[in-house]
């Protein structure tokens, strides 16, 4: 009888250990984020550090900000890393996310062919005048056209300038930032891009920066844990752990160093509060 009880106890203990280990090994996180964080190489640089430190495996879904926010609304992601602050704040106010925190920023720039047929370099840092010149001259402009953070910003600039882009010259790609830049390069066209993605692809593009420095081109990124009440599948503990990790000083330092060695400048400026 004692041998049977001992064997049963051993089996129970072994099962408990196995279950515990399996639970640890199965810790996962779905991160819905922008194409810029992936195209720039930032995620490939910092996520292995997070996975090593926490044992949490991150499944990245790199899509436009609008699509990422919809993933959150549908309960199909655990945490969002996006860049359209007004839309992010609405997302939280509507109860889809628990909170929003600033993470980092960079800026948008207008890029175009080196010949610069629209003469945008002469306009210097006024993006509204640049858009007006593109519209008046019908110079080909490639829009993301995908409700991404970049697309939202582009549309807001047209609207604030009381301009309505339309015609064959205004091409809506419906693609991510990397594909849009490639398309603009091949078509000798202009487009708006985040600086990080452009710099990471610059060597393979026949495009150069023609407009930069306008304050309206500021590009803030935020992180939002999805409300766990969405469904029972939301990994809220892992999402909170990711947010805490992303905002801590050591990770902010990693973000601030990214790009310096290769490009001579950081691609993102950390500004967590």
Can you describe this structure?
With 273 residues, this protein is an alpha/beta fold. The protein has 2 domains: 26-105 and 219-270, Periplasmic binding protein-like II (D-Maltodextrin-Binding Protein, domain 2); 107-217, D-Maltodextrin-Binding Protein, domain 2, CATH 3.40.190.10. It is 46% helix and 19% strand. The protein has helices at residues 2-25, 35-39, 42-54, 65-73, 85-93, 127-137, 149-160, 177-187, 195-201, 236-247, 249-257, 260-263, and strands at 28-33, 57-62, 79-82, 101-112, 141-143, 170-172, 190-194, 208-211, 218-225, 269-270. Strands 1, 2, 3, 4, 5, 6, 7, 8, 9 and 10 form a 10-stranded mixed sheet that branches. Residues 17-23 have low confidence and may be disordered.
Brief sketch in words of this structure:
The protein is α/β, with parallel strands linked by helices. 46% of the residues lie in helices and 19% in strands.
- Strand content of the residues, in percent? 15-25%
Tell me the CATH superfamily of the largest domain. Answer: Periplasmic binding protein-like II
Radius of gyration: 23 Å
User: Which structural category do the helix and sheet elements fall into?
Assistant: alpha/beta
The count of DSSP E runs of length 2 or more, i.e. the number of strands, is 10
The best one-word shape is globular
Q: What percentage of residues falls in helices of 4 or more residues?
A: 40-55%
Contiguous helical run count: 12
* CATH architect. name of the largest domain: 3-Layer(aba) Sandwich
Query: Span from first to last CA?
Result: 63 Å
């Amino acid at each position: 009888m004692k041998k049977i009880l001992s064997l049963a106890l051993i089996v129970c203990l072994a099962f408990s250990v196995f279950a515990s280990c399996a639970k640890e090994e199965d810790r996962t996180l779905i991160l819905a984020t922008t194409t810029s964080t992936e195209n720039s190489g930032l995620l490939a640089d910092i996520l292995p550090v997070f996975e090593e430190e926490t044992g949490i495996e991150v499944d990245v879904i790199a899509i436009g900000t609008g699509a990422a926010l919809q993933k959150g609304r549908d309960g199909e992601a655990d945490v969002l890393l996006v860049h359209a602050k007004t839309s992010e704040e609405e997302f939280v106010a509507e109860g889809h996310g628990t909170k929003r925190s600033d993470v980092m920023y960079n800026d948008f720039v207008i890029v175009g062919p080196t010949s610069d047929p629209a003469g945008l370099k002469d306009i210097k840092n006024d993006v509204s005048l640049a858009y007006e010149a593109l519209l008046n001259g019908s110079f080909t402009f490639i829009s993301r056209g995908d409700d991404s953070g970049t697309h939202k910003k582009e549309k807001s600039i047209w609207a604030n300038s009381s301009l309505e882009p339309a015609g064959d010259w205004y091409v809506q790609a419906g693609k991510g930032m990397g594909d849009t830049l490639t398309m603009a390069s091949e078509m000798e066209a202009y487009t708006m891009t985040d600086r990080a993605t452009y710099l990471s692809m610059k060597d393979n593009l026949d495009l150069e920066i023609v407009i930069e420095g306008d304050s309206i081109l500021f590009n803030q990124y935020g992180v939002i844990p999805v409300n766990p009440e969405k469904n029972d599948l939301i990994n809220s503990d892992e999402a909170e752990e990711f947010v805490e990790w992303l905002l801590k000083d050591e990770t902010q330092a990693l973000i601030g160093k990214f790009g310096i060695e290769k490009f001579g400048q950081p691609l993102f400026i950390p500004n967590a509060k």
